[in-house]
Write a structure and sequence with these properties.
Elements (H helix, E strand, L loop, with lengths): L1 E7 L7 H9 L4 E6 L8 H9 L5 E4 L9 H13 L3 E4 L4 E2 L3 H34 L12 H16 L4 H8 L3 H10 L8
Parallel strand pairs: 1-2, 1-3, 3-4
Antiparallel strand pairs: 4-5
Length: 193
Amino acid sequence: MKYGYARVSTKEQNLNLQIDALKKAGCHKIFKEVAKGAKTNRPELDKMLSILQKGDVVTIWKLDRLGRSLHHLISTVNDLNEKGIAITSLQDPIDTTTAQGRLMFNLFASLAEFEKDLIHERTMAGLSSARARGRKGGRPKGLSEPAQEKACAAEALYKQGELTAAQISNQLGISKTTLYKYLKFRSVRISRI
C-alpha cells in the first residue's frame, strides 16, 4: 500500500500543495500534521509508522518533512528499509525501492552530515577567534541597573520580616521566582517564605 505523509511547521502554512502532490502520486492514505521543531511530538507520523508493513511505500513531499533532524531522518529511513518499507520523495531524487535510490539517500545523508560538521567547525573557529580578540559571547552576567535596585529593595523588605514572599513580590511587581533570584543575587540567606 502507498501512504503519504504531509507536514507543515506552523498553522499559518498550508498542507494543500503537499496533499495534492501526494494524491497525484497515488497515495491511498495520507497522514497530515502541523509540527514544528526537532523536539515536537508527531503523533500522525507515529501512527503511520505503526501501521506500515513489508512492501508498503511511504511518499513524502521532501525529505525534511519526514525527519525531526538529520539523525532522526536517517534512523527512520534505515528502520523502514530493514522492514522492507520503501521511501519516495517527490522533490528529492530519492526512491529507496531501487538500489540507486538507496545510494542517493545515503549520499545525501552523508553530505548533509558533512555540511553540519563544517558549520560546527566554522562556528568553533569563529568563537575561538573572537575570544583571542578579547570578545566574549553569551548573555551578560548579573542584573541590569533597574533589576539591581529592585533586588536591593527586595532584600530590605525581606530582612524586615514583616511581609510574605507573595506580598513582597506584589509590592515590587515581580514574580516569586524573580524575588528568590534577586535575594540569591544579594547573597541573602533565605530562612523563611
